[in-house]
Amino acid sequence: MNQKEIKKIVSEMTLEEKAGMCSGKDNWHLKSVERLGIPEVMVSDGPHGLRKQEDKTDHLGLNGSKRAVCFPAACASACSFDRGLLQELGEAIGEECQAEDVSIVLGPAVNIKRSPLCGRNFEYFSEDPYLASELAKSYISGVQSKQVGTSIKHFAVNNQEFRRMSCSSELDERALREIYLSAFEAAVKEAKPWTVMCSYNRINGVYASENKKLLSDILRDEWGFDGYVMSDWGAVNDRVEGLKAGLDLEMPGSSGVNDEEIIKAVESGRLDESVLDTAVERILSRIFAYWENKTNTVFPYKEHHELAKRIELESAVLLKNEDQLLPLKEGKKIALIGQFAKEPRYQGGGSSHINPYQVKGAWELLNGVSYAMGYTLDDSAAEELAEEAVALAAKSDAAVIFAGLPDAYESEGYDRRHMRLPEQQNHLIERVSRVQPNLVIVLHNGSPVEMPWEKQAKAILEMYLGGEAVGEAAADLLFGKANPSGKLAETFPLRLEDNPSYLNFPGDGNTVRYQEGIFVGYRYYDSKKMAVRYPFGHGLSYTTFEYSGLKLSSDQIKDTDCLTVTFKVKNTGAAAGKEIVQLYVSDHTGSAVRPEKELRHFAKVALSPGEEKTIKMELTKRAFAWYHPERKDWYAASGEYEILIGSSSREIRLSKTVCMENTSGAVQRIEANTVIGDIVANPQAEKVFSKYMDQLWKAFGKPKSDEMTRQIILSLPLRAVRSFCYLPSEELNILLNALNAAVNETARSGR
Ligand code: BGC
Question: What's the whole-model pTM score?
Fold first, then answer.
């Protein structure tokens, strides 16, 4: 149905029908209008599987849902760093939606992992916005290729569960743009999700559900979003203000209470009816886009289960592997320990909870291994179970402890209280390590844990909440049927107190201050050169890789150019494997406070033994830029930037410097308080100012080679020429005009 036809339908709707269209019929359905042929469509959670509820419904995963395949949660799949795989995941979920008559899947969730304590971190991709948005892009285009919509969520700055429905996230513009919105930006601009879900919280005091700056100015005017915005479940504060700000659909319905508010507001003139019409048009155009492309797909459980396993195989992260203990050798006496070896924890609690198709523990799949339970999830019978496990480990050649967080430790709705594993598990690991040096730890958790026993474990395999096939994947990885190739999408700090948000998480209940600003995750740890347990981007393989031959297309570029970076990666070991290569940019221009390095590109490369491939990555201005609040735009200063190629944020293998020329000028408008350093950074303005520069040098009585004097002059505000060059105020004004004319000329000519 085209726009004209949609407009026609809207023109035939009554005010009541239009207001009704802007809220759900129940938890999962939108309303229909039979007389105009508007069908009833359904939305469902997501994101890592389909949670279609038919009988008792709720938005917190409390009641059951139809059986579906539970794919690895985002905490796991992000570690694949694999765009293609996320596209496949999206396609599978899109197919399932088609099979189950679901028009929109409620995801992906791209909120940034600000603190390891956020109860919902398992649903989120990363602490890095570039990685989060790249993966979200692929997921969205996968789902939407099946003519089903997505709802990228939770927009925005929703990084904790504590008081999530009322708390205000207080942050500065750079943190907002560079970190928290960035995760949404590329996904919205490039993958064009059909819908966006606004978050519950307030942002700098204004509810996301009525935040015009977010929902209209940025989302629509700047990023070009043309779908509809829906509320998170119950996120509406003032329905009419929300509609005005750009919130089209309220979910679920409010039994007509808020529809009534809309009607009254139109009748009283508080709300322009055209605002309502626009919202209805946006909703209808997505309803029909789905309805007209409905297919009769069947749900291929088995195939999707295999995909869930493949994703987890690519996502598990081998954190440590001393003496190449892994893969385990066949024919040895192996002890599997821990309840998770039999009943893996494979997903988190809340609205993303899936009723799985088939779950098996690693123990069930491995022949000839022995088993001891070791611990319970409710911390009971500790001594007895530990003794039994220690005895078994002592008479084995190696012990594999499946440890992790119980369900109650992390969930939607509340945050974690600490970063530790249950004490019973820590003690068990400690005791087993005393009798068995060949100790492997397999972890099931949605977010980092402290590892007081790290030195005693020879190998650690992080499986995260790896979906219903996590046990199968663990069995294959432990015995080398598959080679681990995931890398961490978040830093594992040594202890919770090291996290940059530690002093300001989760706030006082009314507000939470993002004092760490742009220094989130590795941006903080790396800038501070702090020791961490495992850095962002870290992950080992059963083979080794060598990096070489870094080349830049030029060592001198303008901010309007595209820089092509090439380098080689070679598999130097004996096993086939995949390496995730990462490109970081480090700003040496000194133009602003910047993190030591930021991820700007990555690729996953499959290599057989001895094989070498050339990797090509392209960078445009945005890869170098920071958000300039005064310019209200992205800005890359002139000067040097280092291109770093790493196997993690801490293991930089190759680097080269590029010199960038900014074509828009260091400042846009010169004022009496603009510093001379910023003025002379603009070549045209520098020419105009050269006469005064000479006078300043004279006034300081030093040769131009004197570095200290140069630095002092560069940091003088322009008005200082009055004091040091005795310039009358009128002449300062003339100079200001001439300088601004030069700056404008630079902006016009792009030079
Ligand atoms: C969650 C959303 C979810 C919605 C519907 C809310 O509690 O925050 O992520 O999509 O419920 O279940």
Answer: 0.95
